[in-house]
Amino acid sequence: MSVFLRGGIAGGFHLRSRDSSAVITKRRISAVGAVTGRSVNPAAAIEQRATWLPGLEPPPYLDGKLAGDYGFDPLGLGEDPKSLKWYVQAELVHARFAMLGVAGILLTDLLRTTGISNLPVWYEAGATKFDFASTKTLIVVQFLLMGFAETKRYMDFVSPGSQAAEGTFFGLEAALEGLEPGYPGGPLLNPLGLAKDIKNANDWKLKEIKNGRLAMMAILGFFVQASVTHTGPIDNLVEHLSNPWHKTIIQTLFTSAS
């Protein structure tokens, strides 16, 4: 459920965005009324903010300032400002992991199905034995590396900018200097120099969170797909394309249930 926490809180999976500011629009409306001497109805003139359900009034704590905020929080999880800040970071991290996971699953599955590489299907990859290290060794290394990275991320969340201080990362602080919590910068994590002005990078943030939410849904689809069909996503796609009218998700679910 944590995968979708901020997806629920900060916006849903709405793929449209509208760039409008109610405050600026109200001022323009007032100016028009003052110049023309006519009464202008703000409610009729201001286009309603885009929400996950058209016509629904978003909760007051979701004011549209967060990237991808479409007012979706039916459980009221974001009422506490501190919790909302954490959920924002939680969704961002899960979205990035999901995007990496989707790309990795599709790439390795494509290599496997085309015969280019003798790779296991993605849901059996964890049971594969490697010659260069044992499974226990790999688990320990992963815990150490991931634990270090997640600890640094949490410390930066608690005290923004603290992890860029001199001496906090073996003299490499300048290469990992963060732009703001959740958006690391520097040549290592931002080699293309995108969104250097993070305060005015709303478009980049919106694109990332939309793709991340889509990737989280795709990962969920991969899980269900593997559980029902016991094959990878490329195999499922090829089977569907071979007979599009009779090889669909409906027929597959009904066949597996019978």
UniProtKB/TrEMBL annotation:
Pfam families: Chloroa_b-bind. Keywords: Chlorophyll, Chloroplast, Chromophore, Membrane, Photosynthesis, Photosystem I, Photosystem II, Plastid, Thylakoid, Transmembrane, Transmembrane helix. It is found in: Plastid, Chloroplast thylakoid membrane. InterPro entries: Chloro_AB-bd_pln (IPR001344), Chloroa_b-bind (IPR022796). Gene3D superfamilies: Chlorophyll a/b binding protein domain (1.10.3460.10). The keyword Transmembrane applies. The light-harvesting complex (LHC) functions as a light receptor, it captures and delivers excitation energy to photosystems with which it is closely associated. PANTHER family: CHLOROPHYLL A/B BINDING PROTEIN. Belongs to the light-harvesting chlorophyll a/b-binding (LHC) protein family. This is Chlorophyll a-b binding protein, chloroplastic.
